[in-house]
Design brief:
Blueprint: E1 2-3, H1 14-23, E2 35-39, E3 45-50, H2 51-58, H3 76-84, H4 89-92, E4 99-101, H5 106-115, E5 120-124, E6 130-135, H6 136-147
Parallel strand pairs: 4-5
Antiparallel strand pairs: 1-6, 2-3, 5-6
């Protein structure tokens, strides 16, 4: 689990959210994350905003229904991105978030990731508050350490 240092509020704009995603500390070596939890004013988890949610906001759903043939895309993404930059996080965030308790066994976490097709899990402490995030990449590296007989700490 990566301890939570950053979060978003439902009222943040997508522009504010993008700035936070780009600058959030993931660990000692990396800066920038692919998703952040959204907490209300009481610190309660209300959603998750990911890069995928932002891409969906930029690419209007009606576009997939059109036969665009010789349509020119030049400048379209940039124009649409500017238009949605003022939208609220709440309007595009994922509201059905997969969570696990901080003492969940690693196999339970893998099960959630695979069955629910998610790349990150929000980890909750014993009081139900967000404690951190568990990323698919981190789970993968724990598994590969075992595969390669590399030393490392044991996971539940």
């Amino acid at each position: 689990m990566i301890p939570l240092h950053e979060f978003l509020k439902p009222s943040n704009t997508l522009k504010e959210a993008v700035n936070k995603l780009k600058s959030a500390r993931r660990d000692e070596l990396r800066i920038g994350v692919k998703g952040l939890p959204v907490l209300d004013d009481c610190g309660k988890l209300v959603g998750l905003l990911s890069m995928g949610d932002i891409l969906k906001a930029v690419f209007p759903s009606y576009m997939s229904l059109m036969d665009l043939g010789d349509f020119t895309w030049d400048g379209m993404v940039e124009s649409l991105a500017k238009k949605v930059s003022g939208k609220s996080v709440e309007s595009v965030m994922t509201k059905q978030v997969v969570t696990v308790p901080e003492d969940a066994p690693l196999m339970e976490c893998v099960d959630h990731m695979l069955k629910k097709d998610v790349k990150r899990l929000i980890v909750l402490d014993k009081d139900g508050k967000v404690a951190g995030m568990l990323y698919e990449r981190d789970v993968f590296f724990v598994i590969t350490k075992s595969m390669l007989d590399e030393p490392g700490k044991r996971h539940r």
